[in-house]
Amino acid sequence: MELVHTFQPYIIENLDYQAVSRQRVEDHPLPPAVEPDRLMEVLHSREFRNLLTQKWTISTDLLNQHRTMLESTQSVIRILQSEMGEGEG
Questions:
Q1: How wide is the angle at C-alpha 36 spanned by C-alphas 32 and 39, nearest 5°?
Q2: Residues 6 or more apart from 34 whose CB is under 8 A from it?
Q3: What is the pTM of this model?
Q4: What is the pLDDT of residues 22-39, one digit of tens each?
């Protein structure tokens, strides 16, 4: 939610969605961008880079948490499989 509340309002306020090509709207073509060069200007701004850095930090943290949980889950599965195998013999 931190990412949504920080990054999305900036995009809504500062970027031209019309300049972004989206595949899912091929049947409803978008009009030409009003400010075609604005998108490139924003991409080079310090504020946008800082937001991307924050997004990267949040995403990396979530990925690390996922990997840790996956390793723990796989460890528990191995223990259970070992216990079940020993009980059958």
A1: 125
A2: 16, 18
A3: 0.49
A4: 555 566 666 666 776 777
